[in-house]
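Page 37, continued from 36.
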């Protein structure tokens, strides 16, 4: 029995940082993101009735701790599926490695769907999204497509759901991968969030900013959404810096790209930035600005539009990676 699924990473416009339940990965605050259509992770899971352990084959070398995290996650899938057999998993991805472009989100979203399929458990979106959250919180936002809200709640209510379809806003994310080995993973980093002196203010702000952002989405105000997303990214960096020990993922190039986005904006371009727990930079813009922005984009930038959710068929999955119909280059 085999199951295969593909999922896209997502960029959080309102960030998830901090959990009120470590085991269930229940977040302190609601977050909001869109999936990135040109990046993907595909997992193929095969039930291995005679194997003593799960096996994962991937083009990147997995550290022992990562293998353990995968096995623990598959134990949770087995509990849900009421099955005992181990899985053999093959992973393939075009997400740039060691750059922090949310590879765990697309990985655990694809793995949840593939594993449920392999065990022949009904793999509806809600069940897949709840399971994906147990692997990596942000993965729950990679199960449904488009603009996704992950609310707080309990095990059965806190999962990613589509609020607006991918076409709701003409946004683009130019992902600029910057490679640097992370000394502290985001999983570990966010356990220290309670050491920040402004965590309470942060949680109030996240709630307020999320409602402003949803209102901007409702009225189709892409510029308003991007402005709020950059404010959120700056506050998120400040939050990480205010933890003990402080977390600082930026490199010199990260900072130069943040400054460059602000300079371009002063010259009249609608470009805003976001970052996650890593050195890579996301330049966020609207489709009509791409022509003017293109000469300033680093050559390694990967231009993504809001994308779909998990796809389960191999063929369909591969075709979702094609070039954009409106001329955005592959
Ligand atoms: C900065 O989802 O990687 O990207 O649940 O421990 O796997 P775990 O954390 P993870 O954290 C993502 C944090 C973020 C913001 C976000 O995507 O919301």
């Amino acid at each position: 029995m085999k199951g295969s699924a593909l999922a896209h990473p997502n960029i959080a416009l309102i960030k998830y940082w901090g959990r009120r339940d470590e085991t269930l990965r229940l977040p302190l605050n609601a977050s909001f993101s869109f999936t990135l259509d040109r990046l993907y992770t595909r997992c193929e899971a095969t039930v291995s009735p005679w194997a003593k352990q799960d096996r994962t084959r991937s083009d990147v070398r997995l550290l022992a701790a990562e293998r353990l995290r995968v096995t623990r996650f598959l134990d949770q899938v087995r509990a849900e599926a009421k099955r005992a057999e181990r899985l053999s998993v093959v992973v393939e991805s075009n997400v740039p490695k060691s750059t922090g472009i949310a590879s765990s989100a697309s990985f655990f979203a694809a793995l949840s769907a593939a594993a449920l399929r392999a065990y022949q458990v009904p793999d509806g979106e809600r069940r897949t999204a709840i399971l994906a959250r147990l692997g990596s919180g942000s993965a729950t936002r990679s199960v449904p497509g488009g603009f996704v809200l992950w609310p707080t709640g309990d095990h059965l209510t806190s999962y990613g759901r589509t609020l607006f379809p991918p076409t709701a806003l003409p946004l683009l994310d130019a992902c600029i991968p910057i490679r640097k080995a992370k000394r502290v993973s985001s999983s570990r980093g966010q356990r220290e969030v309670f050491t920040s002196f402004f965590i309470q203010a942060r949680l109030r702000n996240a709630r307020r900013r999320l409602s402003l952002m949803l209102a901007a989405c409702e009225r189709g105000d892409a510029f308003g959404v991007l402005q709020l997303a950059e404010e959120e990214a700056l506050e998120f960096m400040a939050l990480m810096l205010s933890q003990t020990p402080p977390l600082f993922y930026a490199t010199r190039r990260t900072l130069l790209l943040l400054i460059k986005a602000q300079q371009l904006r002063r010259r009249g371009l609608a470009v805003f930035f976001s970052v996650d727990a890593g050195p890579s930079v996301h330049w966020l813009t609207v489709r009509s600005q791409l022509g003017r922005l293109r000469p300033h984009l680093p050559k390694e930038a990967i231009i993504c539009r809001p994308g779909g959710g998990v796809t389960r068929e191999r063929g369909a999955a591969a075709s979702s990676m094609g070039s954009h119909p409106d001329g955005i280059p592959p």
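The CA atoms of residues 37 and 168 lie 14 Å apart. Flag for discussion at group meeting. Residues 12, 15-17, 25, 31, 102, 104, 136-138, 186-187, 276-277 surround DP6 (CB under 6 Å).
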